[in-house]
Design a protein that fits this description.
Elements: E1 2-4, E2 15-16, E3 18-23, E4 31-33, E5 48-50, E6 63-67, E7 87-91, E8 98-104, E9 110-111, E10 117-124, E11 137-145, E12 148-153, E13 156-161, E14 172-178, E15 183-188, E16 191-198, E17 207-208, E18 210-215, E19 217-225, H1 250-262, H2 276-285, E20 289-290, E21 295-296, E22 300-311, E23 314-323, E24 328-330, E25 332-339, E26 347-351, E27 355-357, E28 362-367, E29 377-384
Parallel strand pairs: 1-3, 2-11, 4-8
Antiparallel strand pairs: 1-11, 3-18, 5-19, 6-7, 7-19, 8-18, 9-17, 10-14, 10-19, 11-12, 12-13, 14-15, 15-16, 20-21, 22-23, 23-28, 24-27, 25-26, 25-29
Length: about 375
């Protein structure tokens, strides 16, 4: 398995022996990976799933669909695939690379900059006598013996012995987790093999736009999602106290479900002091107060702190945000609005790229060079980054 880079864009994964590569460059995609992986009560709506009941178009040139009667790993706690599914892709042509392009459901690139991405499949590998080429790759994984995996990463190659497993004779569940830190983990049959390995080439490239398949071997139940395929909870569960007009925004619901997934809150957490505005503020600040039993709105102060008219063509406006106990970068924008008269309409004046917290959660940002003949009144907003 290696993660390959092509045409200056990102690759992700390759199973060598059977080769599965994730690369970059999709303008139209074969397959869609949902951004909101844990909004729906049906977990299948939060992942790209390929059962290989029939051969997908992108795999036409590399193999055939065959029936397997026994030996497949047990299904997941969440039923990603049918219990009766017994068709697999037998990769019989090793001279062709098949490309399965990926996009998020909003036509953006699939990214693991904020949430990890999991690539998971049932596999039967083939032992390779020689290591695959890693030119331009992000990672490589291949069977070096029936019970050994070699993993190529930024710091070299490490061999792992999988005691009691036969990677060639038996089917196994192989999982690669692409982490927000620009590292990756490898699991076999949901047991950790390697963690925190740095992607070849460094940690800055955190996008995934295609899977590439080549070589021989067998593949089944391909899964790509921001959600852990081994997750045992109820995907999409929203706290029971979030009802009525509080739960009408899938993006906010996705944020809450992610907190459940991480164990910060539970499905029975109460939100007694919330209204929609306070819930939206918690989402925008990525912060809840209280605890896993009773959530509270985040404590913060925010607004325009200072307005200085320098000249007819320059006004300096300072906006400030303080969130108790927070530091770091928030994936939100600080937007300045302005209007010419007190009864006029607010218009966009300027915005930042991201918000960066200093000591004590304090953000101060000064917008300069504003035309004082166009704007007399100002206010600030925190908004999502488009």
């Amino acid at each position: 398995m290696y993660i390959k880079k092509r045409l200056g864009q990102t690759a992700a994964l390759l199973l060598a022996g059977m080769a599965v590569g994730l690369a970059g460059g999709a303008f139209a995609a074969d397959s869609v990976v949902p951004n909101e992986w844990n909004v729906h009560s049906d977990p299948k709506l939060g992942a790209y799933l390929e059962a290989f009941d029939t051969r997908p178009t992108w795999a036409d040139a590399i193999g055939v669909i065959e029936t397997v009667s026994a030996g497949l790993p047990a299904g997941r706690a969440n039923a990603w695939f049918s219990d009766t599914e017994n068709k697999v892709l037998n990769m019989t042509v090793d001279s062709v690379i098949a490309t399965n392009t990926l996009l998020a459901n909003d036509n953006s690139v699939v990214s693991f900059a904020t949430d990890p991405v999991y690539v998971d499949a049932r596999v039967k590998l083939v032992v390779l006598a020689d290591a695959p080429s890693t030119t331009g790759a992000k990672l490589a994984i291949y069977a070096s013996a029936t019970d050994k995996l070699k993993v190529v990463h930024n710091d070299g190659t490490t061999e792992y012995t999988l005691t009691g497993k036969d990677l060639v004779a038996d089917w196994h569940q192989l999982t690669v987790k692409l982490n927000t830190a620009g590292t990756f983990d490898v699991l076999v049959d949901d047991a950790s093999v390697a963690t925190g390995l740095t992607l070849i080439g460094g940690t800055s490239d955190k996008t995934l736009d295609q899977l590439e398949f080549s070589g021989t071997g067998k593949l089944d139940q391909l899964y790509v999602s921001h959600g852990d395929p081994h997750y045992t909870g109820i995907m999409g569960a929203i706290p029971s106290a979030i009802t009525g007009d509080l739960d009408d925004d899938p993006t906010v619901n996705n944020c809450l479900a992610r907190l459940i997934y991480k164990g910060t809150i539970t499905t029975t957490t109460t939100f007694a002091d919330f209204n929609k505005a306070k819930l939206d503020a918690a989402y925008l600040l990525n912060k809840l107060g209280g605890d896993a039993t009773a959530a509270l709105p985040p404590t913060y102060t925010f607004g325009s702190e200072e307005v200085v008219v320098v000249s007819d063509t320059q006004v300096n406006v300072k906006c400030s945000l303080t969130v108790a106990g927070e530091t770091g970068t928030l994936a939100r924008r600080l937007q300045l609005l302005g209007k010419a008269t007190i009864g006029g309409a607010w218009g966009e004046v300027a915005y930042t790229d991201t918000l960066t917290y200093g000591v004590g959660g304090k953000i101060e940002h000064t917008f300069t060079g504003i035309n004082s003949t166009l704007y007399k009144f100002f206010k600030a907003q925190i908004i999502e980054i488009p």
